[in-house]
Design goal:
- This protein is elongated.
- The protein is mainly beta and 152 residues long.
- β11 and β12 form a beta hairpin.
- The strands form four sheets. It has a six-stranded antiparallel β-sheet, with no helix packed on it. The protein has a four-stranded antiparallel β-sheet with strand order 12-11-14-15, with no helix packed on it.
- The protein has no helices and 15 strands.
Length: 152
């Protein structure tokens, strides 16, 4: 069996911009380069007065020949996710909130609850006691806890 090597860079073109992923650092024209914001809600213009910007290895970024204030990452049909329809939830009333890197879950009973990635994979089991439960969560991105979308 021959397995092809992973390309050093991957790009998908859209109507007004191209999304890129790279394993290596890249030197790019700053005027056309958009960097993912810390909250991951958009790609913003590179914040530099220099002619070029360096994109770090293992980075996702966008390029556009058309100047736009930002490129949103939210999909037009963002309310309809895929691959999580089969997650079982018994409907027990849990209150879920995130404060920094702490997940707070109020539960009416002792139970186990799962954290799911947005593609439906169970990534962590949480042992809950009745009342307030605080967890230091070492994850980044969006997840589903008790039917609630959370961002770490």
């Amino acid at each position: 069996i021959e397995v092809a090597s992973t390309p050093a860079a991957i790009a998908v073109s859209g109507k007004e911009y191209t999304l890129h992923a790279t394993y290596a650092a890249a030197e790019l024209p700053a005027a056309e380069t958009y960097i993912l914001t810390p909250d991951a809600w958009a790609f913003a213009p590179a914040d530099t007065k220099d002619e070029n910007v360096t994109v770090m290895p293992n980075t996702v970024y966008a390029t556009s020949p058309v100047s736009v204030p930002e490129i949103l990452t939210e999909l037009p049909d963002a309310e309809h996710t895929t691959a999580i329809e089969d997650i079982e939830w018994d409907g027990a009333e849990l209150t879920v909130a995130v404060y920094g890197d702490t997940l707070v879950v109020y539960s009416p009973e002792d139970r186990t609850e799962m954290i799911y990635s947005v593609d439906g994979r169970a990534v962590k089991a949480l042992k809950l006691n009745a009342g307030r439960n605080d967890f230091h969560i070492d994850l980044n991105g969006f997840y589903i806890v008790a039917g609630t979308k959370v961002k770490f």
